[in-house]
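Reply to dn_fold:

You asked what the input looked like. This is it:
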Amino acid sequence: MRSRITKRIHGWLEGRFPEKRLFLRSDSETRFIRLTAESQLVAWTGCTILVGWTIIATAILLMDSIGAGNFRAQAQRDQMIYEQRLNSLSTERDVRAEEAVAAQSRFTSALEQISIMQSELLNTEDKRRELETGLEVVQSTLRDTMKAREEARDQVAALSADGITTTAAAMSDEISGTVDLLSQALRETAAERDLIAADAAFALDHASEVELQLRLQEEKNDEIFRQLEEAMMVSVEPLDKMFRQAGLNPDTLLSAVRRGYSGTGGPLTPLQFSTKGGAPDPDAARANGILDRMDRINLYRIAAERAPFDIPVKSNFRFTSGFGQRWGRLHAGTDFAGPVGTPIYATADGVVVHAGWASGYGRLIKIQHEFGIETRYAHLNAMRVSVGQRVSRGQRIGDMGNSGRSTGPHLHYEVRVGGAPVNPMIYIRAGQDVF
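and this is what came back:
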C-alpha cells in the first residue's frame, strides 16, 4: 500500500518536475549531475520561501520608515506651533508689561496731582478759618466801639450843659474815624473770605473731575492687569506640567537656577509705591505678582536648556527598542535606528565627562547636566567632542554608528538621574508638549 502511494506521489512529481541532468564537460571527460523530482521540489520550495520572506521583510521596513517619517514630521509641526505660540505670548506679555508700567506712571502722576490739590484745599480751608476768626474779632471790636460811641454821645449830651461841648465833639469825631476804619477792614475781610470760598469751591469741583479720571484709569489698569495675569498663567502652566511629567520638582529646580543667577536689578525689580503709612497698594501687589511670574518663566527657560527635553536624532529614524526589560535584563535606554553617519545632537546644555570606547557601548559619550542628570550616547561611528568640553542643547556631538555590541546602526540613548536610569521618552514627550 505504501509503495503504491509512493509511486503515485513520485509520478505526480515527475509530471511537474521531470528529471533533469546537468552536464559538466572538461577537456578529458564529461560528467553530469542528476536532478531528481524531489531535489527540484526542495529547491523550488526553498526559493519560494526566500522570495516570500524578502517581500515581507521589505514591506515591514518600508512601513516602519514611512511611520517614522510621519511621526518626525508631526513632531516638527507641533514644535513649530508651540514655538509660534510662545513667541506670540512673549510679544503680548512685553506689550502688556509696557502698558502696565505706563499706566502705573500715569496713576502715580494723578495721585501726586490729587495730593497737591488736597494740600492746597487744606491750606485754603485754614486761611478761611483764620479769616472767619479775624472777622469775629473785628465784629466784636465793632460792637464794643459802637457801644462806646453811644456812651460817648450820652456823655456829650450831658456835658453840653456844663460848657464842655468842644471837647466832646472832638472825642466824637475821633470815635467816628475809628468806626470808619474798622468798617473798611471788615469789608476787605468779607471780600477776601468770598474769594477764598470761591477758590475752595473750584478746587472741590476740579477734585471731582480728577477723581472720575482716576477711577476710569483704575478700571483700565485693572483690565490690563487681568489680561497680563491670564497671559502669565497660560505661559507658566505648560512649563510646570512639563517639569512635573519629567519627575522634576519645579520649585526645587527653580531654586537651584535662582542660586546660580542671584543678581538683582533690571526690569524685574519689584515695584514699590509710597502709601504714606497706609495699607499696601493693591496695584503694586498685582504688578509684583506679574513680575514674579515673568521671572518664573525666565528661570524655566534657563532650566529647560539644562534638562534633556530635546530629542537626540533630528533626521529620519525609527524606534527599534524602548526602555524596560528585554530578554530578562533591563534595557536602560531608547534605541533610534538610522543610517551610519546620521548626526547626533546634545539634548541639553552640559559638560562632556566621557568620550571614548566603553565595552558593550562601543564609542560612548557621557554628558553631565544640571540637577544631577546625565545623558549617554552609545554605538557611535564618530565622536565630535572631547572630555571637559562644554556643549549646548542642539549641538552636534557625534555620528550614528554600529560600534560595540550592536546588531545594526543605531543610537542607544540613556538618561540617568542620580546615577539611576529613567525612561528617556518621559523627557522627550514632556518637551514636545511645550516646545
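The longest strand covers residues 373-383.
Hope that clears it up.
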